Amino acid sequence: MALDRSPWFWTIIGSAVALGLVLGLAAVVFLGLLKGGTNLWFTLPQHPDWFSGSLWWVAVTTAAGVAVGVLRRALRVPATLPGTLEEIRDERVETSTILRAVGVSLVSLVGGASLGPEDALGKMGGGFGTWFSVRRNLHETTIATNTLSGMAAAFGGLLSSPILATSLVVEVARPRRDRLGPTMVAALLSSTVAFAVFFPIAGSTFLGIYTLPSYDYENWQLAAAVPLGLVAGALALVTLAAIGVLTRLTAPLAERTILRSALGGAAFGLIGVALPLTLFTGTDQLTTVIDDGTALGAGLVVAVLFAKILTFALCKATGFIGGPILVMLFIGGTAGIATHLLFPGIPEGLAFATMFAAILGAVVGAPFSLIVLTALTTQVGALQLAPVAVAVVTAYLAVSGSGMLMALARKGRNARQAPSP
């Protein structure tokens, strides 16, 4: 039967339009609240040098930690929730926890947590797709497809690119071959509709936000991308290990959710006072690293890199809720600028683009999406994308092929499943 004559196909197409409309508006509201709330409490210095933050921030981040702990206890938010990437792979979101998790995530992000909004948006998109489908008594296959369409719609607003949102969701989920074509069409439609709703209202875009010096492609850059990819893989493992270590260290406070989150908020607030660029998602802060990297100096940029890893791990380990994607892009981009400052012979654009994609690529099996992401956000040329591809594949193979990623994942699952003290 031709695809366009199938009732199932037109069911998911109709659902995609509805999901795009709803999630486009939801993304506008959530990101608007996030930006407005953050601006109430924080004003970053124009020249974010050492200890250029305000001590007031510690009070804000600590209060945010208390609020996160209170909300988690009052709303009975589960101790562990599936992450953004896990929900995409499962093609289903637990609808009973959506509103609670989104509320805690908004408080976390407004309070300066070093996390991204993609977790809350993914839960809203996937959760609405699941709920919408279950209410209509649709088949499990349709539920899974609508869940992915909802996530693509939510990311279509966040990333301001329907193509990128569709590519990311489909490549991470990897639906079965018989569903691949219809799922891609539905996800592309829902994310396009969401973008059409989001952009006229928000007027912001994720595309071309990072301006880098142009450079000519040379063949040696392909070889240079291999060690850059290996370094990116090592930094990705350091990030995952930091989350695991801090999760174990905070395990004795698992039952004292308010105290745990308050201590976490105070800790990353103090780090933010010393290094202001470590707060928030990192999307805007990465522009500062690019523009002022030379003035900041290699030492400060390297310090920001590892402090960002620490604050990200602190937030994940102490009960704050948010996504990893935008934060790891900041870590990758900052690592690229640091690489150029330490080794000036490597063009800044080459170092940034390869590390920007490869650190996230080391833990996410979506190389094509990350290459597209790099192309759209940095506007590097087509030839310059070849080293990016080499770095992403190198980082992913080095981490996954070595078995270290699976070992860390097993340790993380064991830690979460261990009984509370």
Structure commentary:
The chain is an all-alpha fold and 421 residues long. It has two domains: 3-202, Clc chloride channel, CATH 1.10.3080.10; 220-417, Clc chloride channel. 73% of the residues lie in helices and 0% in strands. It contains 17 helices and no strands. It has helices at residues 7-41, 56-74, 84-90, 98-110, 118-135, 140-159, 162-173, 177-202, 220-249, 257-274, 283-296, 298-317, 325-342, 348-361, 367-378, 385-402, 404-417. Helix 2 runs antiparallel to helix 10 (257-274), helix 7 (162-173) packs antiparallel against helix 15 and helix 10 (257-274) packs antiparallel against helix 12. 54% of the residues are buried. The model is unreliable at 415-421 (pLDDT under 50).
Proportion of residues in helical segments: over 70%
How does the helix and strand content classify structurally? mainly alpha
- Reported by name, the CATH topology of the largest domain is Clc chloride channel
Main pleated sheet: none
Number of helices: 17
What would you report as the Rg, rounded to the nearest angstrom?
21 Å
Could you name the CATH class of the largest domain? Mainly Alpha
Q: Helix and strand string, N-terminal first? A: HHHHHHHHHHHHHHHHH
- The number of E-state strands comes to 0
CATH architecture of the largest domain: Orthogonal Bundle
Average pLDDT works out at 88
State the low-pLDDT regions, or none.
415-421
Give the strand content: under 5%
Shape designation: globular
What's the number of domains?
2
CATH H level of the largest domain: which superfamily? Clc chloride channel
How many angstroms separate the termini? 58 Å
